[in-house]
Amino acid sequence: MALRAVSALTWGLGGPGVGPLRSGTFLRCATQHRLEKMPSSIGFPEASRRPFSSHRILVDVDQSHGVATMKLKNPPVNSLSLELLTEFVISWEKLENDKSCRGVILTSNSPKIFSAGLDITDMYGKNAAHYAEFWKAVQEVWLKLYTSNMVVIAAINGSSPAGGCLMSLASDYRIMADNPKYTIGLNETLLGIVAPFWFKDNLVNTIGNRASEHALQRGLLFPPADALKIGLVDQIVPEDKVQSTALSVMSEWLKIPDHARQLTKTMMRKPTADRLLKQREADIQNFVSFISKDSIQKSLHMYLKFLKEREK
Ligand SMILES: CC/C=C\CCC/C=C/C(=O)SCCNC(=O)CCNC(=O)[C@H](O)C(C)(C)COP(=O)(O)OP(=O)(O)OC[C@H]1O[C@@H](n2cnc3c(N)ncnc32)[C@H](O)[C@@H]1OP(=O)(O)O
């Protein structure tokens, strides 16, 4: 039964205060062409452009010298809510349309958490229309990040499970704070849910098939040193050096002529992005029907309860 499968004993969460349960033993160039974008997005739904009632700013954008820093800012844990995802897409489109912006550093406003992943409350106790809108927003954020013409560097300054890991994976380069309390990985199975094929594809493209098979089935969350070993992140640096390292790595990437780098990125990533684009609607329907199942809703309920009640 799904409930048993997600017993608290198996929830190998990482992050501050969860030590024993943690899984894992583990110049710009003269040429500044803007290429035609990869045919990624089929457009963000009008319904999702509606103003949300809180009017909070959930994504901070700061831009200077052709590089933007985007900070996720959704306390307490930077969960990727429908509201945040919607704001993210709008901010992203503005940057993509700004010809002076060549690179984005994606990071978090919170000191210990990059992102807790998809907001579980958007996947629990809602109706089918909400699940569909939420999932379309998740797809859209991934497509935007994964197919962006800009250089995208993830400055992972805290724990980054599931959807947080996906945002990092969609970036071109990942720098993580070297603090063993932080973890990163696709831990969906620990919640009794399954990472969809495009999460899996992005992981396989990054760390290879065997390591993905192992990591996905067990829902492994890796501390930084282990994440570096398997190639889930590209570099680990002291906590206070994450942003400065991201800036200096960015300046190296920006030395490459944009048009050559962009065409190469397209060559590498388009087949993976296209796989989702070809079956985007079916993927939404699959998500809605999966997440609406009583057994899955019960698993998510238990998981939320576990998160609230666990010892910190
Ligand atoms: C067919 C395809 C089907 C499905 C595919 C679905 C793919 C899903 C992808 C996902 O991203 S699912 C989300 C997975 N995320 C997690 O498992 C992370 C869970 N959270 C944590 O591990 C920890 O919260 C932490 C991020 C390590 C931070 O720990 P900390 O001790 O600092 O905070 P605390 O645990 O006390 O949390 C504070 C507060 O926030 C709530 N919370 C945490 N994570 C989420 C979340 N992802 N969504 C919504 N809410 C979350 C937590 O319950 C606490 O609430 P409270 O203050 O009311 O108790």
UniProtKB/TrEMBL annotation:
EC numbers: 5.3.3.8
Main EC class the enzyme belongs to: isomerase
Gene Ontology molecular-function annotations: delta(3)-delta(2)-enoyl-CoA isomerase activity
Places the protein is found: Mitochondrion matrix
Swiss-Prot/TrEMBL keywords: Acetylation, Fatty acid metabolism, Isomerase, Lipid metabolism, Mitochondrion, Transit peptide
Associated pathway: Lipid metabolism; fatty acid beta-oxidation
Function (record text): Key enzyme of fatty acid beta-oxidation. Able to isomerize both 3-cis (3Z) and 3-trans (3E) double bonds into the 2-trans (2E) form in a range of enoyl-CoA species, with a preference for (3Z)-enoyl-CoAs over (3E)-enoyl-CoAs. The catalytic efficiency of this enzyme is not affected by the fatty acyl chain length.
Organism lineage: Eukaryota, Metazoa, Chordata, Craniata, Vertebrata
Protein name: Enoyl-CoA delta isomerase 1, mitochondrial
Assembly notes: Homotrimer.
Family matches, as InterPro entries: ClpP/crotonase-like_dom_sf, Enoyl-CoA_hyd/isom_CS, Enoyl-CoA_hydra/iso
Family: Belongs to the enoyl-CoA hydratase/isomerase family.
